[in-house]
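Hi,

I'm pasting everything inline rather than attaching a file, because the server keeps stripping attachments. The sequence lines come first, and each chain or strand is labelled.
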Amino acid sequence: MSGDAVQHPRARGGQAPDVFRKGGWVSMREYPCDEEVDFVIVGTGAGGATLACRLAEQGFKVVALDAGAWWRPLEEFASDEAHQQKLYWTDQRICDGDNPLKMGSNNSGKAVGGSTVHFAMVSLRFRPEWFKCRSLLGYGADWPIDWREMWRYYDEVEQALSIAGPITYPWGPPRKRYPYRSHELNAAALVLARGAEAMGTAWSATPLATVSAPHGKSPPCVYRGFCVAGCATNAKQSALVTWIPRALKAGAEIRDLAMAGRIETNDLGRAVGVEYFRDGAWRFQRARNVVVAGYAIETPRLLLLSANHRFPDGLANSSGLVGKNLMVQSNQAVWGVMDEEIRSYKGPPSLSISEHWNYQDKGKDFFGGYAYMSQGPLPVGWASTQNGRGLWGAKLSREMQKYNHQAGLKIVGETLPQERNRVTLADEKDQYGLPVARITYGFCDNDKKLIAHALHFMEQALEAAGGKEIWRQEDDTCHLNGTARMGDDPRTSVVNADCRSWDIPNLWICDGSVFPTIGGVNPSLTIQAIACRTADRIRALAQRGEL
Amino acid sequence: MKQRMRSDTTTLLALGGIAIAATVLGARKPARAAWSAAPRQTRREAPTHIAAARRFNHSSSLLALSVLADSAVEHYRGSFKNPAMFIPLLSASLSFFAGLHGGRDRRAASHPVRHGIHAFAAMAGIAGTGFHIYNVTKRTGGWSWNNLFYAAPLGAPTALLLSGGLGAIGERLRDQPANEPRLLGMPAGRAMALAVSAGLLGTVGEVGLLHFRGAFQHPAMYAPVIIPPVAATLMVQTALAAPRPRPGTRWWLRLTAALGLLGVGFHARGIARCQGGWRNWSQNIPSGPPLPAPPSFTALALAGLAALRLRQTEK
Ligand SMILES: Cc1cc2nc3c(=O)[nH]c(=O)nc-3n(C[C@H](O)[C@H](O)[C@H](O)COP(=O)(O)OP(=O)(O)OC[C@H]3O[C@@H](n4cnc5c(N)ncnc54)[C@H](O)[C@@H]3O)c2cc1C
Ligand code: SF4
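And the predicted assembly:
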């Protein structure tokens, strides 16, 4: 059955899989390729699915394409880490630079629902100052959007995803009450809490996109802990079970196993549609507007792949910034062994959090901030982390016996935008015959100082919480952003605040690529908030006849 | 979605039907007594205060059953880590049988064993509350919402206290003269109405906390934080104002009693909405909404009806 999902498109013949019923189907509107739809959206992750839903609900004709499969979580998500690799984007990519990235499980998904199908559900808001970090904090670049406006869209997304969060959140300006109550803390989360209290800093239950009470057809979370391998209960509020069903209901068509290879433009310099590969053949969907939402690697790749005689450097690239300023988030950790049993894999992996160093500017020798969270690695992942430390054979086996007693703290750290960190096209081709992405990445000194600060602080906190045999995991990175930044100047940005490209007025980019800076929080809530805002802006522009 | 709405509506209709039936059935028998200021004493009926005492015994028994089932599930879930976790099971079992026994007993004298059992339940309830408070405060975070939600529930042992209290009242009432019985230095009907009111408010506190934890995700979750407080207020009014027939209060108490039964239906549906539903009962009964909890309202409302009846005979 699994094999079926990656071999034959499921959304066809006027129906699409119903993710809430085993073997079920829901009806889906379909558009012929030669009909010029209002929007064709490439990618159905945090950005694409949200926008597809909101635009369809506004009455636009929407077709969304995703290269990945349309999974049925209730039937096809196994409690098997190796098997669940089917959710990752593992197509070939070439990684180089001072700190070559490890691509796949920790940073990119390929499925209807995008990376949110296997994300860790941490749903955080930006610190307000970050939207003006160049002017207010002296680094990075300003966003063209005001934080107060974003605050309203955060509210909307938190409602839509029934975020389970604490009654009061210790950091940042007041926010509306989270729609659902925070989850019970597991022992790993309490280790973070004890450490934070010992260090005299605040901590909190993490706002999470998995429900703590039933919502619609989603049952409450069962604390099975397999979240980053895909949630088999639908408690997780991924795009696959939230925005996508809403989009279908509103009349959007979603095409699975549909890989976009090229955006066509006409002589007037406007986009006219998308060429994509599905069901063994290249096809062309006509559209009045094209939205690219393939995440920070595939989005610039597609724009670069679409170069033509009129736009020889790729689409939307008059600034030369498409693919540049790629930002990961640093993801270093400290681990230790506790006397008591922890069983950190019980429940969502990051049930507690400290955002202290996102909001505290004193005592830092670097720009930017980081959050750190409790951890719940699954066994195979944990074994490979130990391999990364050089442990094999008897040593590995001894270490694995401490699995139930280990606890860790891991950061989501801000890195600075640098033009040398970038996505370009390589000569190698992928299975569709398209040049693969070359990803060049290296930390700057500021990034390294931030990491050193975080490791030092977390080490003290873990020790204060009773951790023994503490060691540092220094090599990990997560979340990808940048590569098509927004701004208010066409010379220094790729899109404007509405995610509309400066060069091609009917070409939009709506995903993690548009971030000018990345902050020290996981990005998906912000991506979805931006998508909601973009939908509202598109409606306003359409009403004024400015689309 | 539409299908779910339909099945929701069907469940609601079915539950509504049960509730109405329960209300009507509950209303049928005592209706006669309700409307006459000075109830007739038939040959088969004991004096009014004994009837009230028996009803209190019954309520105590129902509450004990609710505590028994609830603490069995919850403490099983807590793996009976502390041997003291068996105490509520023992105490509630004894109270359950004592209440049943008292409910059948028409004699105008308290029963020392039953009385002892009820006193034990009340004490176990108080001690349990102490344990649960300790469990909350010793956790990292102390008096935090998260601990109030997920540590040992503070309000749960008070149900045992209530069961013991109602049972003890039932016993002590029997020792009073048929004419103008008194409890705690006031007319017995008044004392009982106040006790029921306090019990209702305490239970509402617990339900309010837990339904807040469930984010009031279903509109019906508001019912038990709206209907019983009104009943509690009416009970205070019954206690403090001059005695007179109160058909409105009576109906409201019946509604509250029905709510307790309806609640079981809603909680059963809540379990069905968990992953695996009723097929996965062994996991979902312990982790879903507590099935035995809502009948506490039924027990208290029935005690309220008994108090009301007695109060009407007072001057
Ligand atoms: C393991 C893991 C844990 C994470 N945990 C968190 C977390 O706790 N909190 C948080 O906020 N974020 C988390 N993230 C990050 C978050 O999932 C992403 O930032 C977010 O999903 C990005 O949204 P997006 O719309 O930009 O891209 P995605 O969600 O990745 O969606 C992009 C989609 O586009 C499709 N696509 C790309 N190119 C093409 C093409 N050419 N043609 C057709 N389709 C294409 C892909 O198949 C994919 O489905 C996590 C990510 C991972 C991998
Ligand atoms: S822990 Fe909760 S969110 Fe994670 S996989 Fe299990 S049910 Fe889904």
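The first strand of chain A starts at residue 15 and ends at 17.

If the labels don't parse on your end, tell me and I'll reformat.
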